[in-house]
Design a protein that fits this description.
The chain has about 190 residues and is mostly helical. The protein has helices at about 1-10, 10-25, 25-35, 45-55, 60-70, 75-90, 95-105, 115-125, 130-135, 145-155, 160-170, 175-190. It is elongated. The N and C termini lie far apart (about 50 Å).
């Protein structure tokens, strides 16, 4: 309980210290309590829970996937996606790619902007695993999905991306806004070199 008092403390250093202690000494109990906090009405508690759950590493992937599947609430689903984004940015999650892509496929059917942006961010963090999805999303009819995917894929370090973006820029079957975005990225990337 003392660790959860520190978790609630306004000082982020104290929060982080509490999360590390939870992950070392009270893993199972803490994971369950933090997962329940993802359902809290207080956005700060949810944010802290997302950050703290990521401290537990791979051990939280399956419980987070289970929560995502068992709950239709958009806020909870976004929190689950955010935990996965944080994990994918910090550790290799390849051994759970089936479970993660099952969630990604469900999330991609959602037209909510927050879900779209979070799932695209997850695909970006998955790098080469997420690249085929991002390529497909670049041509999506949903402008937000397509634009977010273009931005995400342009950040990947993959030698095939520039050619893909060139082809995308000249593809008349996609929205002109997306083609213009690709062209703007091309100009920006050339200026950076």
């Amino acid at each position: 309980d003392k660790l959860f008092e520190e978790f609630d403390h306004p000082n982020p250093y104290i929060n982080k210290r509490a999360c590390i202690s939870m992950s070392k000494y009270y893993r199972d109990d803490s994971i369950q309590r933090l997962i329940k906090k993802l359902q809290d009405n207080d956005i700060e508690i949810r944010r802290k829970s997302v950050i703290c759950l990521a401290c537990f590493g791979r051990q939280v992937i399956l419980p987070i996937c289970t929560l995502f599947h068992s709950n239709e609430d958009r806020i909870i689903r976004v929190c689950c996606l955010k935990v996965l984004v944080k994990l994918a940015s910090e550790i290799q999650v390849d051994q759970y790619k089936y479970e993660i892509f099952e969630i990604i496929n469900i999330a991609l059917e959602d037209e909510n902007p927050e879900v779209i942006l979070t799932v695209v961010s997850l695909l970006r963090q998955l790098e080469n695993l997420g690249s085929p999805y991002l390529r497909k999303l670049c041509k999506d009819k949903n402008i937000l999905k397509a634009k977010a995917a273009v931005t995400a894929i342009s950040e990947l370090k993959n030698s095939s991306i520039p050619k893909f973006l060139e082809e995308l820029a000249s593809d008349n079957s996609i929205d002109s806004f997306i083609r213009d975005s690709v062209n703007d990225l091309g100009k920006y990337n050339k200026e950076k070199i």
